[in-house]
Every structure is written in structure tokens, then in C-alpha cells.
Specification:
By secondary structure, this protein is an all-beta fold. It has one domain. It has no helices and five strands. It starts with 7 loop residues before the first strand and ends with a strand. A five-stranded antiparallel β-sheet has the order 4-3-2-1-5, with no helix packed on it.
Length: 63
């Protein structure tokens, strides 16, 4: 997985009926764009350090 600042990180719900979590990548910890990322979560207005799992994907340039 690779991201740039401003990309969306989308984490799919792991249980039926659980909504997606959508965040904006605010900071990279590695120059090559690999995780972890500092993400600002939409809806909760929180920022967290994220190590995305297999239920996550990056949407480039649409933030």
C-alpha cells in the first residue's frame, strides 16, 4: 500500500452493517508512502496513527 498526503484512506466495515471509515492522510512516516500514516478521520474529527490492514485501501487524489 502506498499513499500521499491528501489521499483518502478507506477502511471497510469488518461486520455486516458496519459502515466504512473514511479518513484523509495528513502525514507520512516513510518517504516511499508506505504505512503507517497519520489520518484525520471524517465524522469523528480525530487524528490517529494508522497501520492499515487488509480491509483498507487508498483512493489517490480525490480528497
Amino acid at each position: 500500500m502506498h499513499a500521499e498526503v491528501g489521499d483518502k484512506l478507506i477502511v471497510e466495515g469488518t461486520h455486516q452493517g458496519e459502515p466504512q471509515r473514511i479518513g484523509i492522510v495528513r502525514e507520512l512516516r516513510h518517504e516511499d508512502g508506505t504505512p503507517p500514516y497519520v489520518v484525520h478521520w471524517l465524522g469523528t474529527d480525530q487524528e490517529t496513527l494508522v497501520y492499515p490492514g487488509p480491509d483498507a485501501h487508498v483512493v489517490h487524489g480525490e480528497a
